[in-house]
Amino acid sequence: MSARRILVYVLAALLVIWTLVPIYWLLNMSLMFKTEFLAVPTHLYPHGPTISNYSRLFGATAIGPGGAELPVIGQASIIQNGLRNSVIVALIVTAVTMLVSLPVAYALGRLDFRGRTAMLFAIITSRSYPPIAIIIPFVLLYSQIGLQGTTRGLVLVYLTLTIPLVVWVMTGFFASLPRTVEAAARVDGNTRWQAFYRVILPMSWPGIAVTTAICFMVCWNEFAFSQFLAAGSEAQTLPPAIATFFFQISQPTEMAAVSIIAIIPPALLAYLFQSRIRNLNLVDPL
Amino acid sequence: MATTVELAPAGSQPIPRSSWSSSRLNDTQFGWLLTLPVFLGLLAIVGYPTLYSLWLSFHRVDLIFKRTEYVGWQNYQAALTSPTFVHAVSITVYYTALVTIFALAIAVGGALILNEKFRGRSLVLAIVILPWAVSLYATAIVWKFLYSPEWGLFNAVLLRLGVIDRPFNFLSEHLAVPAVAIAHAWQIAPLGMYFVLATLQVIPEDLYKTAKVDRLGSWGRFRHVVFPYIKAPLLIVMVLVTVEAARVFDIIFFMTGGGPGDVSTTLTWEVYRVFYRNNQYGQGSALGWLLVLLTTIITTLYFLLLFWRRRERPDAGIAGTALPSVE
Amino acid sequence: MKPLYEHFDDLLKGRIDRRTFFKRTAAAGASTPVIANYLAQPAGAVSHFPASQNHFSLTRAGAQTAKLSPPGEGVDTSEQLIFRGWNYRPEVVVDNTDKFNEQYDENVDYQTVTGDYIAIMENFHIANQPLDMAYANPATLARWQLPGWVHDYEAWWNVDDARGELYDGVRASLTIGDKLYGLPYFVSIRGSMTANMAILDKAGITPEQFPKTWDELYTQLRQLKADGVTEEAPFLPHWFASGVWYGISWGYLFECLNRGAMLFDEENVPVFDEQTLAILEEWRKLLEEGIVPETVFTMGEPEFIDAFATGKYAYSPQQIYDLKVFNDPAKSQVAGQVLPVPVDGQPWGLIDEGIYTVPKRDTDTEEKLARKYRLAGFFGYRDQVDGGELYVAKRWAIEAALNSGYKEILQDPEVIEAYNEWLPNQELLPVIEGIVNAGQFPQVWQTFWWEEWNAQAMTELPKAVLGQTPVAEVHAGLKTLAEDLVTRYQTS
Q: Using alpha carbons only, how large is chain A's radius of gyration in Å?
């Protein structure tokens, strides 16, 4: 093997380590009892592994290292509720966003019309507004119109985050397709609209897959709005629910377990997405 | 996808089949038809809060006792002249620069590795995307665990190897910002890696061969063959990363709380503090708008860059490309 | 014997020196079965509030001496009662809520509010969100009372009984004007000095040699460090500053209180005497000498607890109820070896209370208010259906070692038994009582502006200790801030 090949393998290994070590550490803690977590010196792997941090999240009790019974995690219902809400909100927002943003991105990416530049600029700018600075007005508004602490309210706010993002990325994607595509489609007898959904959209699957995943993750990960608009309500999503672990009571191993669970849905999505992107060059426009 | 249809001369219109057809519209009409409803919808949601926050920034407001007083530009003036603001801006810029540099370095480096052919490549490809699936708040939790002097991996390993003899404080005054930036870069880099990789994969083999003939070294190849290609995705990634980093909140909230002291107090954290902890709504809103101004300047620069690029290469995409257009 | 606050008054006015003060207060503390006689001050603490708050006089107008009657048998409970609290053992609260719902055929919705509880709840109030019962701290209570966000309990049918059963100090802390605004959820000492014998044994320090004052503590810590008993910092101070509103700022407040250094006088006018400056300078030295870990500033409370539970530190000021955690083999590496440092002259820490408040909303009818009172009464007083016990308070004492505001709890044999089960030895219960009895209540918590000063102090104090800003500058800045706040809420 040439030196270069060896270097490639070494670097690839480093890349994998860099990527996985943090997740390994989280997993490691989630499989420990608290006493082991507190051990000095720190254990690099669980010497007495347990899945109790997971099972106690879903209604089971467990026997601790000293034989004492460990009860169900106090926040279990809050976490479960948060998980459910996060899934619902993320799915709805993603569906609506994709439906609404693709035509916009198409228009911005492929049509030369007056006002286009201004709109593009507005979109980029809107991405830069820090949610933190606008939350109080939202709380006041939502309280007045009955959206505070509701899933609907969260969905509406999240749309303002996701639509500009998806439009922005997809505009770039559409713009990269060859200019002649529509003309060709139109010659085939398609209307403008048909050219969009019969020809352009199918060509754009890789981009759509990527942005769908991004969109889902933006919702899944959003913390600040949910914290202020839905904390302490039935509509609270997972991130503020996890924040319950940051207060007064220390449950580090349980928190690690919940964090692992929180990673799973987007990780699955990322996995699907990555197989998509490997086909990306197959859809090379030329 | 290849089309075998003969290209029609520009401007030729197919015959409309119904009395109303999208094809009757010109570009501007069709463009507005597609975009306007969505824009109005978004405006309806953010309009009031945005205007209200703008209004707040010109008032001294006590929402508790419902007292308001118009103060003109005072809130802005106070912000611009206060040392905390200057400090927060410099931390924001420092943090943003670090995250961007780290993230781009990881993205490009990773993509170059993944562009090589080696056994297990597809597995590695599947693995490296993982951090991107980890939410920012979860990233904060993970890295706080890693850095911890009490039960952190880094300290545990370094102690065991004898590199250090007492726990090292990664979130110290001097290291807190870079430490948080590394965590953020870990999370945000994989997306960029994928974008860059997608581009690398369409660089024609011929170009590398030509480069070899021209006796270009590795750096030369990167500079003259690879870089021109990945410039476009890099720019897109930079926009995403910079804006995300400049308005970071979750990771600061969970990792440092703006500390120790105020060393990791970014502008968003300062807004949060002034707004929610000090109840100075007018001041907080003014700070918020100054942050918008800052990020707008950054995004405008990108915007100009992209347009400048387009003029340079007229057939490239309009607003930058997620995919390269290969001549 | 004079109550504690009078000694304090003497001290302030220079009639006695600090040493005498400590001697007398200790005597007073030991001889009264009362938590913190400091609180027994006449409830005039809020008299300096702005006088011009006429439009908020709703809460004060017309003494509501007429008591409501408990909701009748067939009262309509279809409208939900909203109960919100911070996240502490939510499973217990859920269980209690269920019990209440079942017993009274009630309809109470309980959720926790996480993160910045104070900030979020304030927004709840500003936005007039539906809310029928909520946790508060003493400082929060004062802040919520003034804008008229909470009902007093004067119209509650059990108010006089409950009042009579409270410790005097607790009653005073829940009283604003002459009305009761809260019912007790727990009463604790935050900053109770906690000793880890696993380390102290190595140094040959016995409980008899525990420090009696902050100065003695720091001397002993320096000795520990010099003797190389711990490789790392031996002291975990109450200086955490991440994700909470009660970290380093409270740590500063209670060290000042304990030492008799004056931040605010009895009228809550900012004084910031020289000793308060000296304390900050001492803190800076402690950090420089490696007596305390620099990492404490980025800790949240859970990490602060866990760090001590690893057994690496010799001393730490902690919540007194967390003694149970440190002595629980499932949660601590040093279970059975963690002792409270007794109060012997100088108090440790300050009184930390959880309070049930009944928020006030435009939609409140008499009938609804009666339902709210019944709910608060169940949690903050007695379970009138099931034997009339102090059900919730007793449960907290037994399960989590949370002290109550009611005198009866610590005399309850079941509670005593529960304490002795986890306490490393049987002599410790009186020690805990001594610590609690000596507890000090910061008068300044009854100002409207404390929370705002506190929020700023949370970021400013670490800067001073870390040397980012000169100590004197931070100290002066915090004083100026307090003065500004006093003016802001007095003149406008």
A: 24
Listed in sequence order, the residues at least 6 apart from B89 whose beta carbon sits closer than 8 Å to its beta carbon are: B267, B294
Alpha-carbon gap, residue A144 to A142, rounded angstroms: 5
The two three-digit tokens of residue C1, written as one number: 């014997």
CA angle C248, C326, C334 (to 5 degrees): 115
DSSP string of B96-109, one letter each residue = HHHHHHHHHHHHHH
pLDDT truncated to tens, each residue of chain B (327 aa)? 333 333 344 444 444 445 566 667 777 888 888 888 888 888 888 888 889 889 989 998 888 888 888 989 999 998 899 888 999 999 999 999 999 999 999 999 999 999 888 898 888 988 998 998 888 888 998 999 999 988 899 999 999 999 988 888 899 888 999 999 999 999 999 988 888 888 888 777 777 777 777 777 778 878 788 887 777 778 778 877 888 898 888 899 889 888 788 899 999 899 888 887 777 888 888 988 888 888 788 777 876 776 665 555 444 333 333 333 222
CA angle (B184, B142, A256) in 5-degree steps:
150
* Half-sphere exposure for C29 (CA within 13 Å, toward CB): 27
In eight-state DSSP terms, residue B260 is: S
The DSSP 8-state label assigned to residue B196 in this structure reads H
Amino acid occupying residue A203: M
Separation in Å, CA of A63 to nearest CA in chain B? 23
Distance CA C280, CA C263 (A): 12
How long, in residues, is chain A?
286
Instruction: Evaluate whether C439 touches C259 at the Cβ level (below 8 Å).
Output: no
In chain C, the residue whose alpha carbon lies closest to the alpha carbon of A233 is: C111
Given CA atoms A185, A190, A194, A197 in this order, what sign does their dihedral have? Answer: negative
For helices C450-466 and C471-491, angle between their N-to-C axes, nearest 10 degrees: 170
Alpha carbon of C122: minimum distance to chain A alpha carbons (Å): 11
A198 touching B (Cβ < 8 Å): no
Give the nearest partner residue to A228 out of C123, C303, C325, using CB atoms. C123
Q: Are the CB atoms for C39 and C187 separated by under 8 Å? A: no
DSSP 3-state assignment of C107? coil
**Quick check: pTM over 0.90?**
no
Q: What does the alpha-carbon distance between residue C342 and residue C193 come to, in Å, rounded to a whole number?
A: 8
Q: Structure tokens of A31? A: 């499989």
Helix extents (H) in chain B: 27-56, 74-81, 83-114, 121-128, 130-133, 136-147, 153-161, 176-200, 205-213, 218-221, 227-246, 250-255, 267-272, 281-312
Chains touching chain A through at least 3 C-beta pairs below 8 angstroms are: B, C
Asked if residues C150 and C141 have their Cβ atoms less than 8 Å apart, the reply is yes
3-state helix, strand, coil in chain C (%, to 5): 50, 10, 40
Q: What's chain C's Rg over C-alpha atoms? A: 22
Phi-psi region of C179 (alpha: psi -120 to 50; beta: other; left: phi over 0): beta
Q: Are strands C133-136 and B67-70 parallel, antiparallel or unpaired?
A: unpaired
> Cβ–Cβ of A175/B320 closer than 8 Å?
yes
Query: And the tokens for B132?
Result: 């991107």
Please tell me the number of Cα atoms within 13 Å of C456 on its side-chain side: 19
| A194-222 per-position pLDDT tens digit | 888 888 888 888 788 888 988 998 899 89
Tell how far CA C82 is from the center of its chain: 24
Question: How far, in Å, CA of B291 to CA of B95, rounded?
Answer: 14
Express each pLDDT in A244-286 by its tens digit. Answer: 887 777 888 999 999 999 999 888 888 887 766 655 432 222 2
Verify whether the Cβ–Cβ distance A23 to B130 is below 8 Å.
yes
Half-sphere exposure of B239 (CA within 13 A, CB side): 31
**What are the φ/ψ torsions at residue B62 (nearest 5 degrees)?**
-120, 95
CB B202 within 8 A of CB A206: no
